[in-house]
Amino acid sequence: MVTVAGEGFEDSISSVISAPKGPEDRPTVGDWLLVDASSRNLVRILDRTSLFKRLAPGDDRRLQLIAANVDTLFVVTSCNQDFNVARIERYLVLAREVGVRPIVVLTKADLSTTSGLFLEAAQALQAGLQVQLVNARDPESVSDLSAFCKFGETIALVGSSGVGKSTLVNTLKGTDDIATQPVRESDGKGLHTTTVRQMHRISIGPQGGGWLVDTPGMRELKMSEVSAGVAELFDDIVALSLECRFSNCTHAGEPDCAIRAAIAQGTLEHDRFARWQKLAAEDEVNSDNAMLSRGRQRKVRRKS
């Protein structure tokens, strides 16, 4: 079942879709479709400019599509206990892998007395990374984000539940028709206000007419087939590794290891190095599993 908007369609319809060959052949939010007007059947999915996907939680073999044709990714987190460098980096890796412009949006800046520290921590994740401090309820505060809300542009919002994604969507739309819920004060965690991925038309911005994709909070974000994104986000560490004496250096105890030298000199944080190792290792394992899974699926299709 797919909800479709377009000329000749009233609100939403159920479109009959032929059995797809694989997960990426299924329509997902943000897709542009060619649909037969009389039968309401899907003819084909138009070529995508970008596609966000992840391994489904609890299942290393099933691929889950998140959003397609995204131009800008708002990585939304708040200036409180939700702020988590490792989680933000995972979203940034996805954006770099897909080739989409990431913007880190720090919400609830009006409720924090240390918002500047959160800003510095986010900016330190990568040189040139754009970071915005906002009060998601204040149109003036989010006005800088409207520069990305251009006609024909699609913005996707990702982040944990309770960080203010739905509030931000309401403000950018100029409405309050999306329900929001309070967070627990003890740990800053929120309930899943948004339970499905959906698109909203933007009414503000230089030209207006863009689209926002609101996504549910993701409790698990596994890395798979994102080696290019990892390398781009951690390009400083990759460059250092090329200076090691041995090309297969594990950075554990080999002599003349440039990475260990940088850590000792204080020019590279050990925590950042550890996060890079973890993401790279996770991506390698999951990518190998995904390749094996596709091979098994091809064998099954050939037999059938």
UniProtKB/TrEMBL annotation:
Protein name, as recorded: Small ribosomal subunit biogenesis GTPase RsgA
UniProt-annotated binding residues for Zn(2+): C244, C249, H251, C257
Cofactor(s) of this protein: Zn(2+)
EC nos: 3.6.1.-
Family according to the record: Belongs to the TRAFAC class YlqF/YawG GTPase family. RsgA subfamily.
Location relative to the cell: Cytoplasm
UniProt cofactor note: Binds 1 zinc ion per subunit.
Function: One of several proteins that assist in the late maturation steps of the functional core of the 30S ribosomal subunit. Helps release RbfA from mature subunits. May play a role in the assembly of ribosomal proteins into the subunit. Circularly permuted GTPase that catalyzes slow GTP hydrolysis, GTPase activity is stimulated by the 30S ribosomal subunit.
Residue ranges annotated for the CP-type G domain, each copy included: 60-221
Residue numbers binding GTP: T107, K108, A109, D110, G159, S160, S161, G162, V163, G164, K165, S166, T167
Oligomer and partners: Monomer. Associates with 30S ribosomal subunit, binds 16S rRNA.
Upper taxonomic lineage: Bacteria, Pseudomonadati, Pseudomonadota, Alphaproteobacteria, Sphingomonadales
Superkingdom per UniProt: Bacteria
Top enzyme category: hydrolase
Keywords annotated in UniProt: Cytoplasm, GTP-binding, Hydrolase, Metal-binding, Nucleotide-binding, Ribosome biogenesis, RNA-binding, rRNA-binding, Zinc
Domain called EngC GTPase: residue spans: 68-219
